[in-house]
Amino acid sequence: MSETLDTNGLDAVDRPTGPVAAALLATGIGIFTLGLLTTLSEASTDIHDFLEFRDDVGPLSGKTILAVIAYFASWAILHTVWRRRDRPLRPILIATAVLIALGILGTFPTFFQAFASE
């Protein structure tokens, strides 16, 4: 015996897309930051040395900490600005995909070693 749900009394809630757009774009920004810092660390000994927050971990500690800070900072700012707005998700998804692709590219040894300082 199957029961049917009466949806006549239910109202659809129309929520803004801004918070979702903020989270998506912040993810892309965080991943791009990690790739950029990985490449810059290989290209410059000064940046490499700056990113060594802990000697036993090396520059990876600085890269990941700064990437996480970039994610949370951009998410907080974008969420605050967009929380009650409707943002078109298609351009946000495209921008996020491009940032993620560039971030991943920046973490490939073949790519970042091309910028190695001699």
Description of the molecule:
This protein has helices at 18-43, 45-50, 59-82, 89-106, 109-112. It has 118 residues and is mainly α. Helix 1 (18-43) runs antiparallel to helix 3 (59-82) and helix 1 (18-43) runs parallel beside helix 4 (89-106). The longest helix is centred in the first third of the chain and has 26 residues, at 18-43. The radius of gyration is 20 Å and the shape is elongated. The N and C termini lie far apart (75 Å).
The level of helicity is: 55-70%
Largest beta sheet, briefly? none
Provide the domain count: 1
Mean pLDDT: 89
H-E order? HHHHH
Q: Which outline best applies?
A: elongated
Beta-strand percent range: under 5%
- Supply Rg: 20 Å
> How many beta strands in the DSSP annotation?
0
Derived from helix and strand composition plus strand pairing, the structural class reads mainly alpha
**Low-pLDDT segments:** none
Head-to-tail CA distance between termini: 75 Å
